Amino acid sequence: MQYYLKSIQFRLQLILLQLLYFAYIISVIGRAIPLEALEFGQYLKSLRKTAKLSMAVLAEQSGVSQPYISQIERGERGIPSPEILKKLSTALNTPYTDLMAKAGFLPADTTASMDRLNSIKSFWAEYQQATSQQIQADKKLESTNRELQIAEYELLFLEEMERVTELTEFLQKPGITYKGSPLFDHDKKRIAGVIEYLFAEERGK
């Protein structure tokens, strides 16, 4: 009988030890870090390293405490709130939607839509830049063509001057100027009259 009681007591102790062991396992599992938190922590750390920021600098620029950032990177505080993500995205110069998507706050279709929107914005910016460059190139080409036309006109004028030997014939040419001012028909007639007077006076001597 005594042996039987000791056997029961031993079994009860064994069961109690098993229950304590299971309770310990459950408590450890309860404290285990979720995989999502670990992944996000590594993601945040990679962003910080890419930005070449220390935890202290990131804390100063984002307004999020350095210990909290350290806990996030180790996956000990779970996924940060959208407010914290907004502060971190600004300091890390990373799109807020990227952090929200990585943290699981945005569904896959929303993330894809945001990616398409960002692609469209990038394409539009490139299009505007190309359009601006094209407009500038057109203006430069127009200015060059205008200068070329002026040069061609001046060349023809010089060639015509070499051919013309009669002063009165020269005065009939269009586009003649005096110190930058155009000579009109009445100006040319006055010049021709003065020249005629001077030559007539010279012949009379």
Automatic annotation (TrEMBL):
GO terms for molecular function: DNA binding; DNA-binding transcription factor activity. It comes from the Bacteria. SUPFAM superfamilies: lambda repressor-like DNA-binding domains. GO terms for cellular component: cytosol. The chain crosses the membrane at residues 12-33. InterPro entries: Cro/C1-type_HTH, Lambda_DNA-bd_dom_sf, TransReg_Diox_bact_type. The keyword DNA-binding applies. The keyword Translocase does not apply. Residues 44-99 form the HTH cro/C1-type domain. Keywords: DNA-binding, Membrane, Transmembrane, Transmembrane helix. This is Helix-turn-helix transcriptional regulator.
